[in-house]
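Thought: the user asked what Branched-chain-amino-acid aminotransferase: cytosolic-like isoform X1 looks like in 3D. I have the sequence; next I should run the structure tool and report back without guessing.
Action: structure_tool
Action Input:
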Amino acid sequence: MNLASFMLVIFTKFTFESNFIDALEVGEPYPFSCVFSFKNSTWEKPKMLNSPTGEISFLNKGIAIANSIVDSFRWFVGYDGEVRIFRPDFKLDRLNYGSQKMNLEEIPKSYFYRCLNLFVEEARNRNMLPDPLKNQSIYTFSIYAASRASNFVEQASETIFRLTGQMSNKLFHWKHATLKARIEPDNFKNIGSFLAQYKATSNYGISYVADAIAKKSNYTTTLFLYPKTKRRKCLADLSNANLFIVFRNKKGHTLVTLHDDHTLYAGSYRNSVITISQMIQNLRFKKRCVDVEMLQALVNSGQIVEMFSSGNSAQITPITEISYKGEIIKIPTVQQSNPVYLQINNILYDIFYGLTKNALFHEWMFCITANGNDLQKC
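Observation:
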């Protein structure tokens, strides 16, 4: 179902209450947060605070940055008025994988779901739900940290979980419909290290510096490489998103991404894109290295026809230009007829807004239970 049909369904079958607020602009933080903590061998129940930062702002910043895990979540208002969240079970599993690696107490599912519910119910009560007709969603961001100095060897005695949020849309970082990426030739992410495969805050330090360099050259983001050998470097990840590349030959199209072990974090969006790609007719999928030194030749020969990002804040966004060692490489992503990135994006957004009977909708989208204390597939 396309957007026009979606609007027709809403206006002919349902009457939305006036619960969309214009005062909260896209990118603007919600004026509240949810927190819960582990102290004295006991979990304290989730609570709402009238602050967009929450209690974690009082932590020693060095502790929070060095020993914390982050992740993000999106809530959508469906065509039926139901508020749903995308894959919280996947997110919790990844958070607790990181908790185990960093010797933080495992986050209890009941408190995690309760905190998510409290946040969206507060948004509902304040008439701050996102407007689906504007492709809006609630982007919530969590940080889980040791609230006292600790290290990776000893179990942290006190921890705190904080959930904040802001109004979002379907653009890359709420601003960009397309991406221009500068390739970082010399510095690499912590791929294959102790910090790989979970979102430790220390993994993002290299991205801040690289993105600052990219923006000075009028590029949106940074594309990092994976050093497979001393001479061969593979296209890997964007600063805070996974990367997909579409190849074309006489037999059709192939969607390509790097092997799981060669990416810093294989996120829920990436997992979803891979699953959806296998539903598209005449589209093959493969995990392989794409050598950066071959990129220009592969584009010039017409073998690479699309590149795009995937991620909770990055969304599925087409990449149109790459800069590598002063060379500009134009990627014809948006010039394609019925591009792969758009096919995947449309299926995904139909799932987000409940515009499909696809089985993945019931597998990936969760609703608040009647008692407000849990989430369930719906």
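Thought: the tool returned a structure. Summarizing for the user.
Final Answer: Structure for Branched-chain-amino-acid aminotransferase: cytosolic-like isoform X1 predicted. The longest strand covers residues 68-77. Confidence is low (pLDDT under 50) at residues 1-22, 56-65.
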